[in-house]
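Predict structure. Chain length: 180.
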Amino acid sequence: MIQQNPNSMEYVKRHIRDVVDFPQKGVVFKDLTTAFKDPRALHIIGWDLSQIYRDKGVTKVAGIESRGFVGGSILAFELGAGFVPVRKPGKLPADTIRESYQKEYGTDTIEIHRDAITPDDIVVIHDDVLATGGTMLAAYRLIKSLNPKKIYINCIIELSDLGGKALLPPDVEVTSLISY
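Prediction complete.
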């Protein structure tokens, strides 16, 4: 077991790569794949995420395609909860519901299985980065339409200058491990 220390999130930050002009000119993309490939950084991320929700009765973690699958799966495992993928259209095999939305680089759509969430569920919606908030808001609307007991929103990185958190409902707890 890797031991945590007060500087653990600084360790993770050192393993996040900035990719300039991706996916378009003028954008500095925060690439978490370099942190995910480092065993200690990945462990720290999983541990710190799980500590936020340890006593909140979470039954499902909804991870947003595709990097949200990494942290979301770890979080679900650590909490003993189920994992629900939120995917691009045509990727889920059964009956789905969908939501289209504006994001930083254009319009997109996400889907979830219609039977993925029940009214008894307490759900954490997870993605790697919260930027302008469009994807997270669309995921929230999808999951909210299935009437769970409670919804939490979480990301590893929040790009606070882009204001995505302000787009989300004020009555929903939104957390991140790192804020830039």
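Summary: The first strand starts at residue 17 and ends at 20.
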